[in-house]
Amino acid sequence: MAKLTVLPENTSYPLSASVSLLNTLLKNAHPIQHKCGGKAQCGTCRIRIIEGAGKLSPLSEIERRRLGEENLSAGLRLACQTYAFADVSIEIPKT
Ligand code: FES
After folding, report:
1. Residue ranges around ligand 1 (CB below 6 Å)
2. Residue 56, exposed/middle/buried by CB under 10 A (0-12, 13-18, 19+)?
3. What CATH number was assigned to the domain covering residues 3-91?
4. pLDDT by 10s per residue, the chain, length 95
């Protein structure tokens, strides 16, 4: 089974391609902000992709607009809009 690894803690959780990375984290009680409840409105669920960027669901237009080019260039995604199809490693930036 594929896994989601959170760095630098190096904590891993099993993931499913049908469950967003946000919901994977929440299901495992891993702290992450999510003020809008996963509707791509708040931008607080930002994560940085460390490994596995090519194994993620494509960027949606709403995610692209919410993050902006600067954040996208820095490897950020919205955890509520991102699904992974194989192992992926992330960091949760401090806000
Ligand atoms: S939870 Fe608000 S943008 Fe993801």
Report:
1. 34-36, 38-45, 78, 80
2. middle
3. 3.10.20.30
4. 899 999 999 999 999 999 999 999 999 999 999 999 999 999 999 999 999 999 999 999 999 999 999 999 999 999 999 999 999 999 999 86
Cα 95 to ligand 1 centre (Å): 13
Identify which of 80, 90, 92, 95 to mutate to test ligand 1's pocket (most ligand atoms within 8 A of the CB): 80
What residue spans define the domains of the chain? 3-91
Is this model's pTM higher than 0.90 or not? Answer: yes
Residue 88 structure tokens: 């992926």
